[in-house]
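Margin note from the TA: students keep mixing up input and output lines. Inputs are the sequences; the output is the structure of the whole complex. Example:
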Amino acid sequence: MVEVAETSEQSASQDTGLVAQLRRDFADRLLAEQTTCDGIPTFWVDRQHLKSLLKSLRDDTQPRFEMLFDITAIDERLRVHRAGQPAAEFTVVYHLMSFSGDCDVRIKVPLMDADLSLPTCIDLWPAANWYERETWDMFGIDFDGHPNLYRIVLPPTWTGHALRKEHPARATEMEPFSLDDEKEEYEQQALLFKPEEWGMKRRSKTSEFMFLNLGPNHPSVHGAFRIALQLDGEIVMDAVPDIGYHHRGAEKMGERQSWHTFIPYTDRIDYLGGVMNNLPYVMAVEKMAGIEVPARAQVIRVMLAEMFRICSHLLFYGTFAQDVGQLSPIFYMFVERERIFNIIESICGARMHPGWFRIGGVAQDLPNGWEQRVAELLDFMPPRIDEYDKMVLNNGIVKRRSQGIGAYNTQQAYDWGVTGAGLRATGLEWDFRKQRPYSGYDNFDFDVPIAINGDCYDRCAVRVEEMRQSLRIIKQCLDNMPGGDYKADHPLTTPPRKEKTLQDIETLINHFLSVSWGPVIPPEEATVSVEATKGINSYYLVSDGSTTSYRTRIRTPSFAHLQMIPEISRGFMVADLIAIIASIDFVMADVDR
Amino acid sequence: MSLEIGSGLTIGLILLTVIVVAALLITVERRLLGFWQERLGPNRVGWQGSLQVVADMVKIFTKEDWVPPFADRLSFVIAPAIIMSVILLSFAVVPFAPNIGVVDSNVGILFVLAMASLGAYSVMLGGLSSDNKYALLGSLRAAAQMVSYEVFMGISLLGVVALSGSFNLRVIVEAQAGGWYVIPQFIGFVIFLIAGVAESHRLPFDIPEAEQEICAGYHTEYSGMKFGMFFVGEYLGLVLVSSLITCLFFGGWLGPGFLPPIVWFGLKSMVFVAFFILLRAAIPRPRYDQLMSYGWLFLLPLSLINLLATGALILSSQ
């Protein structure tokens, strides 16, 4: 406890140190500073100074910001509460993350609709590539110098930019959809892979390359995901991942749904993570609303989140084994997963997507007898995990198929925005739960497993060990479940508490409005990240003082991870590529949102 | 007509039995895999799913007989027929029991090996004629794998041939009356077993049709009965390899007299069939190049050493 308190104090002082440094070094170039309720230093800068600021944040400041965590934009044209912010019709937001200093910084660039362009920063962080493409796709903001500024999430034939406020959010606001032969042909042509667009040659001096279209429907791409491969025999020369087949516009829905009714949508982002997805969202809303979550609710949340972590890792483990050709483990692991889902069901009432967290707490208190069921889980899991070690991790063929395959080091992980087990497998002992504890994780005793080679095998081994650590956390939840409320006593919680509604008319009116319209969250901005099942999942919410979010940005780990596939699979064989894909552990819903 | 080698009745019965057994194996494999994988498997059609194969057959026979417009029609149609015919032909020399068999050939083993080589044409033609990149990759892998594994499949058998002094499978079985060849030829047995799995390309040697990598490999474009022939062909191959192992290393029909010879033969073969299915449930798939180097750098020298040692022992004992 004491140690943790010290580190958070330390990081706070570093933050102020950083702010002072930037004020000194960029005094004349910063447009403004903005304070947000999440405490992340936020600076406004003109586009001509953007690159130099980003570069110095990457290389010179103390602490250095190793990772470009996110790039996104906000359509400011309808926003009311912008006091103190420079005039802008669109704002591009760069979110950088420092692993050495355990802190973030947010850089904002104001843009006008007439001149929406920025310099690309792919040369600083290769990860910027997809983020800039997405920002262009969604807002129509140009990035000068970007090599492939094509649509990434929406179909190549789409017109308009979906996250602009004038773009319709629902099919009912658009023309009825029809697909005649001509349009079908047009769509088909648009999907054709043209190697030249990606700087690929069709032949080398010695051989003619084969371009293999792996996906969007393929047994081992784990969803609707396409990779166009340039093959020399069976050797992967280059690859172009193509995403967007699972896009549902979750961020746009966030602007329509009330703060409360968006919770179930978050469940479907990383659909294997269940309530783990609710957590960053509700915590961000709570931060803006100033809600303190009671200890019991926090521990319940941690317990459920860790159960889902085990479920997700089990599925990863099984499919990883299956993708290297081992037929059976997936079935054993599904049995386990099923048993955990039964426990989750008895607590939440639903299995994969309970949508069970609420603004201010959780939906219900734990049911009677929950201790017994959770104790069962703690009983049956450990021997099974040990058995799987024998079956999969210690298997000679699995080792030969995965060791030394698809390896990258910590620096590459930073460059490409890799978080989670993929980062820890490179030897960096960095877990969000440990470094920047949220929801009371600082009260738990657990280890952060790491590996050193950063290859497919290590990514798997780290996750297996994480399951054991999750069990440890669940055990501590079971032993030390605090008493008290499962939801905060605050007017903005959802659904609002009902005890006092029949006592006086004011509370009754409040309750009625909060249930029918939903709570009004004060105008604020907040980013909250958690160590989700696949890496760092983060929600950046902008409230304009209304019952809905003004902008919901969902930063998912898998998006960044997929972008790295070409980098780590060049020179390997098709079979290795499958092992690499399996070891990344992604779901397409998490990538496309 | 009576049950004797080469009579029409015998031939007809063998053909029927072999095909029915191969088809039944589809259900058996699914049930066994289910049992080993903590799940049920197909258990709805008939008693314990025993009629599943009938349902599958009805489905597969009534499917549209489809040839993709971009495929090379002739070789596309011939390919699945080749695999069925060469494997069925191989059964001609298999001695099921003293009085049951199709021919009593004095080049039996060579005939089986020759047929196995022809089998490679089936997967190559199937893959090439499909005009599909996955099928192409699959058939390339298949051709390389089958050709390589045939080499030491042949060599691994030479120990048995040297011991019995004959290529005739019937003579080999009879020569084992004093003791099964699995004991003196254990290394030969293991190599033949591995090569046999590779020849029938089943997991862990299912590189040509590795589902997770190249969809269904060489038969990606096949459907309906043509796919069914590849499918049943695979099971026929499994039965063939099992019965060959029984004949060559486990004394064929020989066994204590309380059961008829044919039953002994069937029981022994089924043990190996079950073993192959268990293998599929247990072992992951090596990578294509790992499989090749394993074959050429490990199995080939080992089979040669085995042959040399066997020869030396025979010479020294004379």
